[in-house]
Request: fold
Amino acid sequence: MPHVLAIDLGTTGVKVAVVRDDAAVLAVVSRPLTNTLTADGGVEQDAHEWWQQLVAASREAIAASGVGAASPR
Reply:
């Protein structure tokens, strides 16, 4: 059964889910992101942190889902 790694990169965090093709959600993991306020009232985020949190959440979600490399496609 095919699986999808769904990713939601939001303002305050990243959320990753492993979903089967029948829409069953097997695992969901979220990680926070740091927002830095600028002097002019803007908000900045660090793209390196996005990547680190995305990779960590993806690994955790895949492990929690029980889906392995040998799973049918």
Helices lie at 47-65. The mean pLDDT is 92.
